[in-house]
Structure formats: structure tokens, C-alpha cells
Amino acid sequence: MQQGLLTFAEHSAEQVNALLDLAADFKADPYKYRQALAGKSIVGLFEKPSLRTRVSFDIGINKLGGHFLYLDCQDGQLSGRETLEDIGANLGCWADGIVARVFKHQTLIELGKGNDVPVVNALCDLYHPCQGLADYLTLKQAFGDLKGLKVAYIGDGNNVTHSLMILGAILGVHVTAVCPKGYEPHAPTVAKAVALAAESGVTISVTDDINALQDMDVLYTDTWISMGDNTKFEQIEQTFMPYQLTMDLFKQTGAKYVLHCQPAHREQEITSELMDSPYSLLLQQAENRMHAQNAILIDLFK
């Protein structure tokens, strides 16, 4: 079987839009899909701890009639006693699929080498495709149409930024990443997004100028220190505080909504005033993680 989902970089707009429609349909009528994973067992391998990812996959798979087995890594790493390929090969003997939240993208590739069951990327250093699909599901519900929207991501250029750019380029959304110098998104990934954007007629851009944002539809931020990074806030405070999402910045850009994939650190990357405001789509965005992920799983096992 294989296939799986590590990144959306090779998907067409038609494929991504079909997943968005499927996620919306599941959200509207989950009972219709109650047997979509009947008899299927999905293993969740987590090098990184999680709230939203673990709970949304566990409950979501249950709603599809499947079984989710959570495996955490006591030492924080999957590899050690045996190779990643051997771990994947053994899991493939019993499980119908693997959902993995890992530190390195290469880990996902190695896990998939030893078996023919689909591997779903629940987060790695380069991509966060499930989050990205949930983000655009949220925006489609808020705006009705995604084409031509202007989204600004502000903060650390990370896996969330990359998936936001890749999917935005495919779906016809203009995405601007505003990041401090030295914290820009991964250059090869940006280049891939720019190439995809050329096909859909939108722009993907990176800047360090927070004052360059004008006429935006959405502002998006994420934590400044990724999970597993031991950097202290005091070490990056002066660099990142000018990029904090505040109500003043929100109004200055003309944006209508604000997104954050959470966990959010109030009064660091985003103020409570904005996070708790009517402009915040954070809880809808979190809820949509389950619907987006279930759409991916339904599609993989159809």
C-alpha cells in the first residue's frame, strides 16, 4: 500500500481541495464515516509529547471506527536498540498505518522503508502537513474562498511556516513570512513554495521588516521556541519581541483574523488581548486538526 503523507509538496490543487471538502463533510456529518477505519489499527509514534496531536488523532480515529495505539519514546528518540527501518518493518507486521511525530524528517523516511503501510507525518523538523491542512480548512470556513487571500506568518521560520507556504502556493494564497534575521524558513523549502506559487499565480515571500505588512487578511504566529529546543526565552527576547502579535499590529495590517497552532505563550509571541478577541480563530483551528487528519486517513484507506 505505502503512499502515506509526509508533505503536501507533490499534491495538486485538486487533491488538496478534495481533502478540504472531505474534512468539511466529516465535520458536518461524522456519523457517515463511522466505519471508514473499521478493523484498522494505527500506531502513533511520538518522539515529542503533544496535547492537540495525540488527542485529535486518538479521538478522531475512534470516530472512524479504528483503533489508535500510542507509543511514546521514553528517551525522546526512536532509534537506539534497533534501526528505524527495523522498527517500521515490525510495526508493519501488525499495524495498518503509522502516525509519527518526530524530530527529523529523515526518521519518517526510514520508518517507511521497512514496510508497505502508510506513514503520516504528525510533525517533523521540516513540515507540519496536518496542521497546514487544518489551517486552510479554518480559513476556507472563515472566508468561503481561499484564492487570493493574503496570509502573513510572523515569528520563527519553522515547520509550520513551511507547510503554510507549500499549501498556500498550491491553493492560490499569498503567503508572507516575516522573520527576524537568522530565523528565516528553510531556503530550499521556500524555493519549492515559490515554484509552486508561480504555477498558481500567487506570491511567496520572506522579509524581516515587520512594518512591511499592509492589506493582510490573516496574521499567523507560533511559539518562538520549538518543543525540544532548550533555548531560554531571555536569550531570544530582544530579537523576537518586535515581532509580537498585538492588537495594534493586527489593526495596522488590516487583518480580519489571527491564527496560532498552539501551544501559545501568552504575552510572548501573542498577547492575551488578541488571543481572546473576536478576531481569534485559535479554537476553531484546534478543532479542525481532527477533521483535517480524519480526511487524510479516510483518503488513505478508501
The count of strands amounts to: 9
Beta-strand residue percentage: 5-15%
Radius of gyration: 19 Å
**Spatial sequence of strands, sheet with the most strands:** 7-6-5-8-9
**What distance lies between the first and last C-alpha atoms, to the nearest angstrom?**
11 Å
| Largest sheet report | 5 strands, parallel
**Low-pLDDT stretches:** none
Shape: globular
Q: What level of helicity do the residues show? A: 40-55%
Helices and strands, in order, run as HEHEHEHEHEHEHEEHHEHH
Structural class: alpha/beta
Molecular structure report:
There is one protein chain. The chain is globular and about 55 Å long. The chain is built from eleven helices and nine strands. It has about 300 residues and is α/β, with parallel strands linked by helices. The model has no long low-confidence stretch (mean pLDDT about 95). The strands form two sheets. Strands 7-6-5-8-9 form a five-stranded parallel sheet. The protein has a four-stranded parallel sheet with strand order 2-1-3-4, with helices on both faces. Helix 4 (about 105-115) links the parallel strand 3 and strand 4. It has helices at about 15-30, 50-65, 85-95, 105-115, 130-145, 160-170, 185-200, 235-240, 245-255, 270-275, 280-300; strands spanning about 40-45, 65-70, 95-100, 120-125, 150-155, 175-180, 205, 220, 255-260. Helix 5 (about 130-145) packs across helix 6.
